[in-house]
Amino acid sequence: MVQRVTVPSLFTPPVYAHASVVEAGTKLAFLAGSVPLDADGNLVGPGDPVRQAEQVLANLDEQLRAVGSDMAHVAYTDVYVVSTETAVLSAVWDVVEASGLSIGPHSSTLLGVACLGYTGQLVEITATAVVPEA
């Protein structure tokens, strides 16, 4: 369903593909940003981007299952991290890499941003996934 493409004439990406191609006619899910809130709406891991990334990925997994998909079928993500330090972005990326998203590997963009929507929020991930036929 998803063809992962790493372009030989470009740099070899560490744990993502340069592109993901989905054949027309495949059902896709476009997920809203997954945030580091628990089921009661409380922020998980205040001040800790790694802990927040773990919660974001757990929530993303729930979103995917709710639409009939899973981490292995994610074609693309945007990973937002409130930081200007590449070490912080790398620490969050390590959590992403250790998740089921690395099975693909999917295509992704990692961004350092000034702020996100919830007070204290440091990480958010948006995703596009294939929904496999039952």
Could you explain the architecture of this structure?
- Helices cover 23% and strands 29% of the residues.
- It contains two helices and six strands; from the N terminus they run βββαβαββ.
- Strands 3-6-4-5 form a four-stranded mixed sheet.
- The two termini are 13 Å apart.
- With 134 residues, it is α+β, with helices and mostly antiparallel strands.
- α1 packs parallel to α2.
Provide the structure class. alpha+beta
> Can you count the helices?
2
Query: Could you give a short account of the major beta sheet?
Result: 4 strands, mixed
Distance between the termini: 13 Å
Percent of residues in helices comes to 10-25%
Tell the overall outline.
Answer: globular
Low-confidence stretches: none
Beta-sheet strand percentage? 25-35%
Quaternary status: single chain
- Reading the helices and strands in chain order gives EEEHEHEE
Give me a quick take on this structure.
The protein is built from 2 helices and 6 strands; from the N terminus they run E-E-E-H-E-H-E-E. The chain is an alpha+beta fold and 134 residues long.
Descriptors:
alpha+beta; 6 strands; globular; four-stranded mixed β-sheet; two-stranded antiparallel sheet; 134 residues
Task: Explain the layout of strands and helices.
Elements: E1 2-5, E2 19-22, E3 28-34, H1 49-66, E4 74-82, H2 86-98, E5 107-113, E6 123-130
Parallel strand pairs: 4-5
Antiparallel strand pairs: 1-2, 3-6, 4-6
